[in-house]
Amino acid sequence: MWDKLLAEDHAHVWHPYAAASDPGVIVPVTSASGVRLQLADGRELIDGMASWWCAIHGYNHPVINRAVSKQLEKMSHVMFGGITHPPAVKLAKMLTDLTPASLNRVFFSDSGSVAVEVALKMAIQYWHASGRPEKQKMVALRSGYHGDTFGAMSVCDPVTGMHHLFGDVLPKQFFVAAPDAAFDAECPESELHEIGDLLTEHHNDIAAVIVEPVVQGAGGMHFYSPDYLRKLRALCDAFDVLLIFDEIATGFGRTGKLFALEHAQVEPDILCLGKSLTGGYMTLAATLCNSRIAEGISDGEAGAFMHGPTFMGNPLACATAIASIKLLLSQPWQRTVERIGSELAAGLAPARELDQVAQVRSLGAIGVIELNSPVDLRQVTPMFVERGVWVRPFGKLIYAMPPYVMNSEDVATLTAAMVDVVAQL
């Protein structure tokens, strides 16, 4: 049966970041529960990826299962144009209560990339409505990643990112170096000179600056000083430029704070959320903004924000998100993330002694081994499976972002496998 499934997969399915003709190692999963993936051959893998960072409660959680079933009995979907429903309203209120007070409007979409598209469009339409249509450019950090759709691609690093093939057709944005100051250090003023000079010269053309606060995710798992965000906020205010935070990867506790912006106590004008929003059950994202943006756009020429996804405010996804957030907040999640972070740091520490390792770092429930050269997925994927864990490296990085329900024994197994595989390379 599974040989046939894999053959049909190979013939018809195109996997992410893979060749259609030869996707590499594909592992058939039949079910998932807790932190474990059940394979077709009966083996189990401890999932160190939380399904690309979103399954914070693990799999098949009874609380979220009940919420999904209860909503499914009422309605799975209804259009959001001209219609509202309790799950969307309750979730919007919940998000505005949890995020900075100024962020009081929520625009739902169906993926993180689209949440970024919405943020960029909000910034541009706001300035158009304000009588400054020339303010269309974005400023982004080198080594940043914001998604795979066209607008999102335009603010990903065009040199080290994965989208250089589309460089000639993407909007041309401004890029500045990411801060070098470490997470636990003060950010020197010199780190802001480049972006300060850029804003001085081009602020009349710039709509917004977009950054991943504190942690740059898929661009390199780089952790930087929250102090940079405070200084960046001041610069944006001085030059009348909006500030967008992309917390799709960091939101809902991953860095040890509910949102990474809390490390700096900075309020952006626009905030993007996704991934862990529904605990990994459903695809849903949200873009939050302040009254200045919402009212500016609404009072402008169009009289409305010109965006509207078909599955916007999907009731099933919104009900799932409510259950996931309530579940998170009902538990001592901060202590849990701190515990996982300590165990990741301790478990990965031996990798520092290996010649092929450039750096080992951790923050919140994120643990990273950075190598001196890129990883070959065809080589390392079977090595991890043999050791009973699921880890999906990229570039020079072998990293873990486990579900928050992972116990200490499983974290130890995960980190030991990571160090062991690196040692064999």
What does this entry look like structurally?
The longest helix is centred in the N-terminal third of the chain and has 18 residues. The chain has two domains: about 150 residues, Alpha-Beta Complex (Aspartate Aminotransferase, domain 1), CATH 3.90.1150.10; about 260 residues, Type I PLP-dependent aspartate aminotransferase-like (Major domain) (Aspartate Aminotransferase, domain 2). About 35% of the residues lie in helices and about 15% in strands. It is built from 13 helices and 16 strands. The protein starts with a helix and ends with a helix. The strands form four sheets. The protein has a seven-stranded mixed beta sheet with strand order 4-12-11-10-7-5-6, with helices on both faces. The chain is globular, with a radius of gyration of 22 Å. It is an alpha/beta fold and about 425 residues long. α4 packs parallel to α10, α5 packs across α9 and α11 runs parallel beside α13. A hairpin with a 2-residue loop joins β13 and β14.
